[in-house]
Design goal:
Layout: H1 2-40, E1 64-65, H2 68-78, H3 115-129, H4 138-146, E2 149-153, H5 154-165, E3 180-182, E4 187-191, E5 200-208, E6 213-220, E7 229-237, E8 240-248
Antiparallel strand pairs: 1-5, 2-4, 3-4, 5-6, 6-7, 7-8
Length: 250
């Protein structure tokens, strides 16, 4: 009897052990499958959320009105021999400048010329007087005889125009409007009958920091045009005014 009970208990224990083994194996197997599935899952890449910083627009510099002191300084500068020639003529942009109309007196050139140059100039005047196509008038010839002669080296004239306009302006050789041209010196010779200086006074003006442009309204201090108003536009470069335009005020 006891032996039978032991056998039953043994069978039960064996069955429990086998059941436990099956349960443990099942749990292990299921856990393994779950882990494998998790490893095989491809996670979508995480998109980095970039914080959109608001674009900060730089404030546009406001146009500044020039003070009385600034206008006085500009008047003084424009009344110098170096800058006044670009005030004496009118143009919407530097490419319109006619080099024959620029009064170079005082800006470039010299009245010191050699006796040889004087003889060559006189000889060329005589030839021009005999030119039937483009004769030199008697008054033109007399102007050279009774006034000092200004010598303008062509390359110096080009350098001056580039400095004051910021662009290359080529001056052709032997242009009658510029005076008597001598190939030997590559220079023009003009009868200096007047200084061609036009004194001006600046009335008001502005400065635009965004463009660097000074726009100055002025009037000419000469009787026949005293009431007329003009506007010159220029910018500062290396301590020099570079001219952009010079026009009558509309």
């Amino acid at each position: 009897m006891k032996e039978k009970n032991r056998q039953r208990i043994g069978k039960v224990l064996l069955a429990v052990v086998v059941l436990l083994i099956v349960v443990i194996f099942s749990i292990w197997y299921i856990a393994g499958l779950t882990q494998q599935q998790e490893e095989n899952v491809v996670e979508p890449p995480k998109q980095e959320q970039q914080e959109q910083q608001p674009v900060q627009q730089q404030p546009t510099p406001s146009i500044q009105n020039l003070t009385v002191e600034e206008l006085d300084k500009i008047s003084d500068q424009l009344n110098t021999a170096k800058d006044n020639p670009l005030i004496a003529i009118l143009y919407q942009n530097p490419t319109e400048i006619k080099v024959s109309q620029v009064p170079y007196n005082g800006a470039v050139g010299t009245t010191t010329i050699s006796s040889t140059e004087k003889m060559q100039v006189t000889e060329k005047i005589r030839k021009k007087q005999l030119d039937s196509k483009n004769p030199f008038s008697e008054s033109q010839a007399q102007a050279y005889l009774h006034n000092s002669i200004l010598k303008l080296k062509r390359t110096e004239m080009e350098a001056y125009l580039k400095q004051k306009t910021g662009i290359e302006i080529q001056i052709q050789k032997d242009v009658d409007e510029l005076g008597i041209y001598l190939e030997e010196t590559d220079s023009y010779y003009q009868a200096r009958t007047s200084t061609n200086f036009i004194p001006i006074f600046c009335d008001n003006g502005t400065f635009d920091p965004s463009t660097g442009i000074y726009a100055v309204e002025y009037h000419r201090l000469v009787a026949e045009t005293e009431a007329e108003k003009y506007v010159v536009q220029m910018r500062m470069q290396d301590g020099e005014f570079v001219f952009v335009s010079n026009q009558e005020k509309k």
